[in-house]
């Protein structure tokens, strides 16, 4: 499936907006976002690597949405991740460096999902959210 980042972000918000806090948890779709660091798509078996390099991710990819066309909006990790998490270009609120992270007042899809009754678990290094930001 090929989706551009804006289309993906809009579809995510549409799904989250359509889910009310009263919706049973069993009726909700699970969302897992994986942003591997310094790993190109062709390193994964599910993207055509000839060796079985990622068997568990391959199984997961069979029932998940895989992006065939994705582009980083910045050469540095943090501005690129902030763009993915907020749906805004990094220059809109000054996220052009590795140190200007998402603030509590900024719109981001984790907070939208949380506000709509989803349980949010952030695992791995945090180079996108400031220490002041916490999922309320």
Automatic annotation (TrEMBL):
Record carries keyword Signal: yes
InterPro entries (UniProt xref): Alkaline_phosphatase_core_sf (IPR017850), GAG_Ulvan_Degrading_Sulfatases (IPR052701), Sulfatase_N (IPR000917)
Organism: Prorocentrum cordatum
Signal sequence, renumbered to the chain: 1-18
Protein name stated in the entry: Sulfatase N-terminal domain-containing protein
Domain Sulfatase N-terminal: 30-128
Key words of the record: Signal
Pfam families per UniProt: Sulfatase (PF00884)
Residue ranges of the TM segments: none
Transport is among the record's keywords: no
